[in-house]
Design a protein that fits this description.
Blueprint: E1 7-11, E2 18-22, E3 27-31, H1 34-40, E4 45-51, E5 55-59, E6 63-68, E7 72-75, E8 82-86, E9 93-97, E10 111-113, E11 128-129, H2 139-149
Parallel strand pairs: 3-10, 10-11
Antiparallel strand pairs: 1-2, 2-5, 3-4, 4-9, 6-7, 7-8, 8-9
Length: about 150
């Protein structure tokens, strides 16, 4: 986990949408909910959480897809790659699909969520697992543990 750099770039599959971050992730995750399984066409989605001000789209115009509610999922309008999510709430965070980063291998999941919906043959190697989302009161501890494990 200590290999995650302070800046990173990424892009959709076709390259029409590019983005960058200028911060280390606050935490990395795998989500096993059936919604993520369907949106990623995989057994789970992988993501890294960043403060909103650390993230920017540098090329292209992503579009909203998936669910169209308070939580907004952004995709490339051409290749339909799921790029990032802006979760609902008062704080400005961006949950970037870590497989879209150029250095995707550096974003090993630290927590996994919705393990109650996990396909029984899946293993992520995450340090912590939760049947749903972690309780809000546990987030400060999880973020601190991730920062320590990541060398920051």
């Amino acid at each position: 986990m200590s290999d995650v750099s302070l800046s990173a770039t990424g892009r959709c599959r076709c390259g029409r949408v590019e983005f960058e971050v200028h911060a280390r992730p606050m935490v990395t995750m795998a989500c096993h909910c059936t919604g993520c399984q369907r949106m990623s066409s995989s057994a789970f989605s992988l993501s890294a959480l960043f403060p909103g001000e650390a993230f920017s789209v540098t090329r292209g115009e992503p579009v909203i897809g998936g669910l169209h509610g308070a939580t907004r999922h952004f995709f490339c309008d051409y290749c339909m790659s799921w790029l990032f999510t802006r979760p609902e709430g008062e704080a400005d965070f961006v949950n970037v699909r870590s497989t879209m980063f150029d250095n995707a291998a550096d974003y090993r999941p630290f927590i996994e969520t919705f393990t109650k919906e996990k396909l029984d043959w899946v293993s992520t190697g995450a340090t912590h697992g939760f049947e749903e989302f972690p309780p809000q009161e546990q987030f400060p501890v999880l973020l601190q543990q991730y920062a320590e494990a990541a060398g920051g």
